[in-house]
Amino acid sequence: MSTALKLEEKLYTYADYLQWDEKERFEILDGYVYAMTAPLINHQRISRELAFALTVFLKDKPCEVFIAPTTVRLNPQTKDDTVFEPDLFVVCDRKKLDDKACNGAPDLVIEITSPSSISYDCILKYRKYLQAKVREYWIFDPESKVVNAFVLRDDNYIASIYDENDKLPSKVLEGFILNLSEVFGVMEE
Fold first, then answer.
1. Do 121 and 111 form a contact (C-beta atoms < 8 A)?
2. Are 124 and 130 in contact (CB under 8 A)?
3. SS3 state of residue 130
4. 176 contact partners, CB below 8 Å, separation of at least 6
5. pLDDT-based confidence at 117, cuts 50/70/90?
6. Of residues 59, 49, 87, the one with CA closest to residue 181
7. How far is Cα 109 from Cα 141, in angstroms, rounded to an integer?
8. What is the rounded radius of gyration, in angstroms, for the C-alpha atoms of the chain?
9. Residue 27 and residue 169: Cα distance in Å, rounded?
10. Which residues contact 14 (CB under 8 A, 6 or more apart)?
11. pLDDT value at position 32?
12. What percent of the chain has pLDDT over 70?
């Protein structure tokens, strides 16, 4: 997302989220509401390329890719005060899906940063995805053309960094290798 702006200090839950106007985009982190602004054009270009590559790869496989704005409830079995709309995510256990959301940790989450969302994606969301045991988390930085890839191992993330000249292999989606020069190549300077 382009910007994550923390709103008022009142605490909210998924039940509140369901009551809000669908035209406006919000996420809830530990009960606090963050307003999401419209993504920039290069953000959308990268998102489109990622969605296409994942869709083609996952054809006739049990996993499915989703793009924002699709809701993820990381901990629906507890006090549900964290609700995200990742840029993209992949779910391999379709029992986690209902008509409104993914209920539980996706297998792969992808966020595309902007200068105003870096700390939100790299610190706050990182912690939540780790706690929820998201198996793989990729953070795309269009400014530097770098991807930070995190793979869950023994309740911690193992980090790897890839640049626009690398190929990014998924540890969760066996056989999926993303050519980053093609992904970042869609951007206009």
1. yes
2. no
3. helix
4. 54, 57, 169, 170
5. confident
6. 49
7. 14
8. 16
9. 29
10. 28, 73, 76, 80, 81, 83
11. 87
12. 95
Half-sphere exposure in the Cβ direction for 140 (13 Å, CA)? 26
Quickly tell me which residue has 């509401």 as its tokens.
33
SS3 of residue 109 by DSSP: strand
Query: Largest alpha-carbon pair distance within the chain?
Result: 45
The Cα–Cα gap between 130 and 75 comes to 12
Q: Specify whether the CB–CB gap between 122 and 133 falls below 8 A.
A: no
Over residues 144-184, the pLDDT tens digits come to: 999 999 999 999 999 999 999 999 999 999 999 999 999 99
- Enumerate the domain spans of the chain: 40-184
Task: Assign domain 40-184 to its CATH superfamily.
Answer: tt1808, chain A (3.90.1570.10)
> Comparing C-alpha atoms, which of 83, 64, 74, 45 is closest to residue 185?
45
DSSP string, 19-85: TS-TTS-EEEETTEEEEEPPPPHHHHHHHHHHHHHHHHHHTTSS-EEEESS-EEES-TTS----EE-
